[in-house]
Amino acid sequence: AQVPPAPVPADRRRSLKPLAAVLAVVVLLTLGGVAYQAWVREEPNPGAVSPTQSAASPQPSAAPQPSITASATSPSSPGFVLPAGWRMRDDGTGFAIPVPANWKFSRDDAGRPQWRDPRTGTFLLIDQTRHPKADPVQDWLTNETARRDGYRDYQRIRIEAVAYFDRAADWEFTYTSGSGTRLHVLNRGFVTAPDQAYSIYWSTRAGLWSAELARLQVVFAGFRPART
Length: 228
Fold this sequence. Notes:
Protein Transport Mog1p, Chain A, 7-stranded antiparallel β-sheet, two-stranded antiparallel sheet
């Protein structure tokens, strides 16, 4: 029979705690660096970043909900006019994006910038990479296969190519958050240069999707990449 290892003396256990903490930080930094090399890194954890459901949260409608159309979401041009109550925001990496002035800025666990409506919980997250994949549609299909099980009651609405910058694809779906809120997401991945790609992740309560479409169109129309 195996002899169980001798217990670690209390003083040694105390001495190991700082080392364990340092090693944990090193591991997290290493994993974070690796994750940032992917075309589109792990999406926000559904339970961690989904808006908090309130008693007044509207229930999702049974009727089909409209989607963004490519013709309404062309990238930023000299003719783009920032609407009243909006500001151009950035995170210091070179891109700029229109965001409602009262939205709160933060970063997720992977360091990605995000802005959230403090009233409704609708939020916008930007991801980027210097190593784009050749086919955004296929990349979303691959991501869906790998990650759909992480979304409770996941339902795909569409994955399709759209006309946006050099090449792009939309992944639109709904799921139920850990708090029981039905959410509607559009994740647009797009390439702006041979060494630059982004994704714009837009999430809102399902019952607010139609009302929020006009704001999403402003986001798409006003986005300015670091390089094209």
